Amino acid sequence: MHAIFALIAAAQLAAASASAPAPSSEQIVLSGGCFWGMEAVFDAVKGVTNVVSGYAGGKKSTAHYELVSTGLTGHAESVQITFDPNKLSLQQLFSVYFLVAHDPTQLDRQGPDVGSQYRSVIWYENDAQQRAAQEYIKSLTDRKTFNAPIVTQVEPLTAFYPAEDYHQHYVARNPDNPYVVYEDLPKLAHLRQQFPQLAK
Prior knowledge:
alpha+beta; six-stranded mixed beta sheet; two-stranded antiparallel ribbon; 7 helices; 8 strands; globular; disordered N terminus
């Protein structure tokens, strides 16, 4: 008799878990070239609630722009994205990352920016993010979306260090900067053109 009650209780618990709403906030860290443009693109995506420019892949003691710019710290310029998974799926987020925010076929560079600090990396925080990233890259590869191999690394996140204040929301605060005009504003236009349903 006790076994029957235990089975009923287990079934009720499983049903409650299955119907529980998804968490309203999730974070993921992405690298793909200069963090100015990456931040601006994801700031413009529906379901994203916050984006912070920073550094990932190296030590806290070297998480400073002047040091990271040497390309010798192990850090990559990165963005920490906080989003609502009920409004924006990881797959949609990856679509913007791979098809708008940067070129995942460029090794240790993005456009005019050259060095390992500009490499393409998805820094996963859990197994689900790792699987989603690997599956998305495989789907792009299988569909031959790009003419060259995808070089994006999928690595576990050990730490994220916010960048200096003057790097935060740089594009919004400096829209006339020549680098922003030629490198970043076209990405925002591309987002609105390719994914109008995702653009704020």
